[in-house]
Amino acid sequence: MQPPAGVGLDRRMRDGVCRHVPVLALRLPSSECGAAMQQLSAYVLRLPRIKAVISDPSPRASMEAPTNTKLILIQPDGGVGGVAEREEGGSGKEWVGRVVPEEVARFAERCGGEVVPWNVRVGYGELNAVEVLKILLPEGLMAPSAFEQVLWSKRTCSL
Description:
Blueprint: H1 11-16, E1 19-29, H2 33-39, E2 53-55, H3 59-63, E3 69-74, E4 82-83, E5 100-101, H4 102-111, E6 114-122, H5 129-136, H6 146-158
Antiparallel strand pairs: 1-3, 1-6, 2-3, 4-5
């Protein structure tokens, strides 16, 4: 929910707070998502206000309307031990700095899914006040915590 006009940050400032986090996503038929969430729960992306399972927006998914696909977002660190990174080449599947966890790769093979690169947009609406302040304040200034704000207000009230 956006604050009324004239209150808080304007649209340009909100757009400036936006970050893109590169992750991997497991593209699966919708019918396999429940099993994937149970078996791969240790690898599923857990961020506040960010959905871990999203509809597949790719043109390929829209062409295959009868086989509806979803994307399950995988944590960037992906756990320990994984399939080696794929190199850039004719296949066009390079995942620089990202390793596909072995369990995720095995599940994708069993269910006819595939692992694809994905960018998660973390914007103004998904951040809390302290995170927004850390981004907006100049380097070296720390965002005040709630405890610091209480101390400051008590000092000013007692003066």
